[in-house]
Amino acid sequence: MIASIRGTVRHVGLDHLVVEVGGVGLLVHTTPDTAAGTRTGQEVSLETTLVVREESLTVYGFGTTEAKAIFEQVQTVSGVGPRLALAMLSVHSPDDVRAALAQGDLVALTKVPGIGRKSAERLVLELKDKILALGAEPGMPPRAGGAAAEADDAVQGQVREALQGLGWTAKQAEGALATVTKGEQPTDVAALLRAALRELGR
Question: Which family would the database say this protein is a member of (predicted)?
Answer without folding.
Answer: Belongs to the RuvA family.
